[in-house]
Amino acid sequence: MKNIFIDCEWVPRKKNSIFLFGYAYNLSSFGTLIGQKINVHEFKQILKPVTGYIILYGPDIGYIENQLVINLNDKYECINLLTCVRHRLHGLDSYKLYKIEKLLGTSRKTISNPAKVRQSPPKPAIVRHIAP
Q: Which of 21, 47, 48, 73 gives a 20 to 30 Å CA spacing to 31?
């Protein structure tokens, strides 16, 4: 059985707002779609090897189904990990994925805070030249 984990970055309350689509079949087989590559044809290609579950965290499935006009629940078993986490870990201040990862000791090497991803790019650093 081959599963897929999907994580999207999107702009809240904006139609067709997924701007980054990440997926992984396992720790060594993964990829991303950005911009125009986020379309129903590319998405179906990614799902071709999936014979098991589509695993997501939060409302990503709704954004995917709305943006790509596709119904995933007809063909796949979808698991929303946010529902599972809320069921097991009651009363947390935040259920953001990067905070849950940190709480459980499974933090990524690079922390991805979606709020930081959505910010404008940082200003270029000032470079000082030192005379020889």
A: 73
Residue 39: inside a domain? yes
126 domain-assigned = no
Q: Are 41 and 49 in contact (CB under 8 A)?
A: no
Phi, psi of 111 (to 5 degrees): -75, 130
Residue 46 located in a structural domain: yes
Indicate if the pLDDT at residue 112 is higher than 60: no
Per the structure, the complete domain to which residue 21 belongs is given by 4-116
- The pTM (predicted TM-score) of the whole model is 0.74
DSSP string, 12-56: TT-TT-EEEEEEEEETTEEEEEEGGG-SHHHHHHHHTT--SEEEE
Angle (CA) 94-100-101 rounded to 5° is 150
Q: How many domains does the chain have?
A: 1
- Two tokens, residue 6: 């999907």
Q: Which 8-state DSSP code applies to residue 74? A: G
